Amino acid sequence: MALWRPDPTFYPSARLAMEAPQERLAYVAVLNPGTGEPDAMTVVDCDPNSASYSQVVHSLEMPHVGDELHHFNWNACSAALCPSSAHPHLERRYLVVPSLANSRIYIIDTQPDPQRPRIVKTIEAEQVRRAGYSRPHTVHCGPDAIYVSALGSADGDRPGGIMMLDHYTFEPIGPWELDRGPQELAYDFWWHIGIDTMMTSEWGTPEMFETGARLEDVVGQNYGHMLHFWDMRRRTHRQAVDLGAQHQMALELRPAHNPTRHYGFCGVVVSTEDLSGSIFVWYRDGDEWAARKVISVPAEPAEAADLPPALQPLGAVPPLITDIDLSLDDRFLYVSCWGTGKLLQYDVSDPFNPVQTGELEMGGVVRKAAHPTGATLTGGPQMVEISRDGRRVYLTNSLYSSWDDQFYPDGLNGWLSRIDVNPEGGMSVNEDFFVDYGKTRTHQVRLQGGDASSDTYCFP
Amino acid sequence: MSAVLLHALIPDPAALASLGPWLGLAALGVFHGLNPAMGWLFAVALALQRQRPVQLYTATGYIAIGHLASVAIIMAALVLAGAFLPLKWVRIAAGAILLGFGIYRLVRYYRHPRWVGMNVGGRDLIAWSFLMASAHGAGLMLAPVVLSLTRPDAASGIVGDLGEHGGFLSLTDAPVWWLAGLLMHTVVMLAAMLAAAVVVYYRVGLAFLRRGWINLDLLWAGSLVAAGAITLIWAVVG
């Protein structure tokens, strides 16, 4: 366990991390809802020079059924080089994998053979409850601990929040917040590490998402629409920024990777005004935080006959912006439109004036755009992960099992696709890399050695 | 407190006259100063974050103050213990503590105080540095040197000659010597921090950290063990 030099996958800055070698493996969380089969962590070969390129080389089944694997992350990342509490000789080795449905957290060891990871520890739901929460979700390696957001309170209602795990033993330390102010709903979180500011976003309480999207709660504007800003040192709530109640489900947060840039992007799933999806940028306005809508993606009109029952009353397909990702140079923002079946690329060098630089059509509720190889694509672009050098993007297509069934009732077959990026903007679907998972559904992708949403950098 | 006991607070003039202890304090100053986890890297981060290179100098200054405070407490504790207890006992106790702490650090070298906060002011930096130096046993590491400066004839009451420097040490001069030793260590530590911070900031660049940041925590733990062993052996043999 003792390293003599820092883990070679740790980089002081995002700029330096862009020089990292190409990833050879991807870890992809997959779901088998309703089949009696457990979910699994699959290992995919991403090395074009390998004989098993674009194939699942291993599948690690979970010991329980119905976990609803969702997001996960590494035990350690470049934040280990942060000078305030450095621990550079820790290894990026374990995947911290929450079960969203069963509230346990698996610790998966990717050593000694990265192609054959093993579960080495399970934090049971009871331990998560004792730490104040349930439905663990987003994981980030922090300066002093592993931080995990949780969508439900210990009794499965509200407030959701953030808990901490010891970054050596993985034992839950307890709830992170000392004063949560008005915050009740939880989803994603990240931080501006250089100014000790955390931001959190909002989805809904477990009953609002576990059985599917609830139209009455969308219409009633009950889903989350606030960004919360926190003092990381004092672990207290500082400010809530309301994006407007019409902006339902403020989900993914992507702060600039450069710690001297104090802005970031938040994806909003749907507007009750016009069914559009949107991207907000948050920024410093004097001593306060503010947010402004910088991208709006319109809904596409459709015949009721082409729509699933859930969307028929609307007569249109909302884009449903379910995931976004920002390249390590803070230049390109990728936006998944899971409803319409589009992946959009924007140059956000000027965060207040994004310029669209690329668009791909893949799947979609009505569009049903096929892969260039001719393969049928069910679902639409969902989880999006960018390689450290920014040249490749990996896409999966499942959102959440009950929501998949609602929006894609004819069935959703999991896939993993690779997108090639032109360094100056623009992108294309790679024809050589496509993994068809059949009835198994695919969720988050993590790249070996790190990717564009795994690491925190303390240096510009 | 009797006058006889107080004399033990006076450094041993013979030891003061030799170069060894001073070199020891200086060498440990370099060792402490070059460790990125002790502060210079924090100064580099602040200079980059705020785009103000002057932070290299102000931050290392505050960090040196916190380090000095942490080391001073251990030093004072050792000297005072030497005033009330036979020096042999103090050496055995200090050696045992060092050895135990060193072994603990060898096994748990990767543990570090939980500190969150990059947006820090002077007072924060002093507190941070005090915490880091204390948790890593920076002051303890100085114990063999400090104890080598302490008069072995604690209870004899003899005020000795200062060798070639001539003159006599009196009780009122003693604090000056201890302070000199403490400052010597701190100034060298500050110089080492500044050198590392300036070189990395202006010349080498941050990529250096990826290979250059060797596991000083392990070396540090080894140094604690070595210092403990030396102190113990010396207590028994010397």
Supply the number of structural domains of chain B. Answer: 1
According to DSSP, the number of beta strands of chain B is 0
CATH architecture of chain A: 7 Propeller
Q: What topology, given as strand order, has the largest sheet of chain A?
A: 3-2-1-30
N→C terminal distance of chain B: 27 Å
E-strand count of chain A: 30
Q: Give the N-terminus to C-terminus distance of chain A in angstroms.
A: 29 Å
Shape of chain B: globular
Q: What is the molecular shape of chain A?
A: globular
* Chain-averaged pLDDT of chain B: 86
Low-confidence stretches of chain A: none
How would you describe the oligomerization state of the chains in this entry? heterodimer
- Cα-based radius of gyration of chain A, to the nearest Å: 20 Å
Structural category of chain B is mainly alpha
Largest sheet of chain A: 4 strands, antiparallel
Most extensive chain-chain interface:
A-B, 37 and 33 residues
